[in-house]
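The following record pairs a protein chain with its ligand, D-malate.
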Amino acid sequence: MARINDSYLKLQAGYLFPEIGRRVKAFSDANPEAKVIRLGIGDVTRPLAPAVLKAFHEGVDDLAKSDTFHGYGPEQGYDWLSQIIIDKSYKPLGVDLKISEVFISDGSKCDCANILDIFDLGNKVAICDPVYPVYNDTNVMIGRTGAANQQGYYEGIHYMPCTGANDFTPEIPKEKVDVIYLCYPNNPTGAVATREVLKQWVDYARANDAVILFDAAYEAFITEPAIPHSIYEVEGARECAIEFRSFSKTAGFTGVRCGLVIVPEELTGTTADGKSYSFNKLWNRRQTTKFNGVSYPVQKAAAAVYSDEGWPQVRETIDYYMANARIIREGLTAAGISCYGGVNAPYIWLETPDRISSWDFFDKLLNECHVVGTPGSGFGHSGEGYFRLSAFGDKKNVETAVQRIKDKWGK
Ligand code: MLT
C-alpha cells in the first residue's frame, strides 16, 4: 500500500473557511427564513470593472480566430503584463524591477504555498500569530514541523504573537531564523508596517541571511500616504525579500485568479556545500516545470486593471469597500466595541464583547444577528478573544449587520 504524507495528519483542524461555511450552511438549512449577512471570508462582491471585463471578452474573442489564437503562454506570464505592472504599480513607488523578476501566477494563496518548494526543510521559519492560515498549514504539510502543542503551535516554527499589547506588531526574533512571513497590510488584524518597521526587518534579514516572504495582497487598500506599498521601497530589500501581490482583492479576481511573485535577481541562498545560488533561477525552474501559466484572457483582463480607463474604475470599487470598512469601524467603536484595522485594510479586527471566546462570539453572531464573521482564534492562538469582519460586502448589508450588532451588544 502506498504511504501517505503523514505530515497532513499533524494538521489540527480543517481549513478555517470551509469550517465556517459548514456552520453557516447548517444554520441556514435550519433557518431558511434568516437573512444571513456574510462578512466572513474576504471574498469580493462587486462586479469586475467595465474596462477589465471588456479586455477579458476581447481576450476570449482572440481565441476564436486563428491569427490571434494563443496556446501555452510563457510560464512566467506575458511580458506585456509584467511590464504594465512594473510601470504602473512599482515605478511610481520608486521601485525598479526587471521583467525577469516578475512571475505572473494564478493567485497569492498558491504562491505563498508553492514558494516552499525552493527552501530547504531545515530552514527555521517565523510566522506571526494570528496569521493567514496558509503560511502555517503549508509548512506543516511539507514536513517542516513536529506536532502541535495545546495552543496549536507546531514544533519547529517560531511564532510571533501580535496582540493589542504590542499593537499587533511582531517582535523581531532574538534568535536566528531563516524565513520570515510578513503580511502588510495585515490579514487578519488590518495592521500596517511603517517604513521604519520594515527597515528593521530588512536589516534583520540581511544580518541573518534570512529571506522575508512579504505578502502585499492588500496593498491597494492603503489610504495613508506614508505607509509603504512594497517592501522594495526599503533599501536593501531586493537582497532579502520575495514579494507576493494579488489581483483578487485589488480588482475582484477571487474567482478569476491572477497574482504575481517578485523574486529579485540579487536574492540568493546557500547550497548544501555553502555556495550562493539565485532564488530567482530556482523559482523560474519550479514554475517552468510545475506551472503552465495563467490563461491569456485572464492576463488581458489583469493588464486592463492598470489601463487609464481601468484603474479609476478599480479604485472606485476599492473606495467602496473602504467606505464599508469605515462604517463597520466607526459603528462598532461607537457601540463600545474595541476595533482595529479598517483604515489601510479591508478587515476590521475587534475584541469580542466581554472577551468571550472567538468561536462563541461567532456562534452568537450567527444565531442571534445572522451575521457571519471569522473567529480570531481560527488564525492562531493569539487571535483568541478577537474577531474579524470583512468589508467586502454590499453597503446596505454592512449597515444592517452593524445595526444588528449594535442592537445586541451596543453600550
Ligand atoms: C481571507 O478571508 O482571509 C482570504 O479571503 C482568504 C484568501 O485570500 O485565501
